[in-house]
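=== RUN LOG ===
request id: a7f3
mode: sequence -> structure
chains: 1
length: 388
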Amino acid sequence: MGKKDKIMKVLQVIPRLGYGGAETGCYDLAHYLFEKNCKSFIATSGGELLKFVKKNKVKIFRLPVHSKNPILMLLNILILSVIILIYNIDIVHARSRAPAWSCLCSCFITRRKFVTTFHGTYNFSNPLKKFYNSVMVKSQLIIAGSNFIFDHINENYKEFLKSKNKLMVIFRGINLEFFNKKNINESKKNKLIEAWKIDSNKKTILLPGRLTSWKGQDLFIEAINVLVEDYNKNNFQAIILGSDQGRNVYSKKLFDLVQRYQLNNRVKFVTHCNEMPTAYSLSDIVVSSSVEPEAFGRIAVESQAMEKPIVASDIGGSNETIVNGKSGFLYKSSDPRELAKVLNNVMELDEEALYSIGKQGRKNVTRRFDVEQMCNTTFNEYKKLFKF
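=== RESULT ===
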């Protein structure tokens, strides 16, 4: 049987299958491949999205691919090689550095095609860390999630790039049916309002994202304080939505900051939400306050899809995903006063202006960041590799 008749088999390898952008992209692509008559596999250590994987469409292998332990990485090489040979995998797609090293070795042993996706900047402080990161450019196809990441790779890893390696941008996509205000369940929305003790008479500012210093939650709290003190804004509440994932030193710093500014009645912390479209729907403004560049900026894209005004720092992927002044607003990164100023301006907008921004946001995402587009482009690139 020639390759023309052969079914393409793709194994994606990701540390955890949680609710992040890389993880949802992996999940969406895995199911899309099945619909395209491919055999689809995921190797992962676990994660919240696992329970939603349709087992009749995608086969799951539970492996410690999240680990940087050299012994476990060697074990992963062995097990992945066996999986590749038993299931006759054609393409292995690694979505993070630790599993990428195991995938690289397994693909070398089994002579299979290797693909990587650069989901972040993977910064480095020394040559050893840079070499560790370089595994992401050792594949036949290197996917950058944004033009920002594409430029970052060319600037920082050009000595590892070879002419036979193909580097290209495939923007992440989101499910536009899932992130659609028309599909919001009012009962779920009311339950969330009650659970989070939302005052419907006040404007709600939502800051989603895991609690980690580069996401800038401390800067956001500073900006909220400026809104109250300098702009005399009182008719609003702020929700910081995200888990500290064990980073309790940083989360304590945030709690202390709220206490110091006496914002306890204004800033709420919510650790988890399984209904992100519903969370967006009950907000009036969404914020992304990252102080380091977002590789893509999923929050900005999801909020635009939900027709909500997004306010984001002017670094990284947000510059590409937001049409400043039309579908959202950019502010000078790491400047809480600038963030407060932009938030104040958005809070002053009338309903007509907010409606227009919402529609522009939805239009922008529909045109550029649809999950179908992302999956189809990736699938077509797989097919090119599969032919050779």
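=== NOTES ===
Residues 90 and 111 are 9 Å apart (CA to CA).
DSSP finds 14 helices and 13 strands in the chain.
=== END ===
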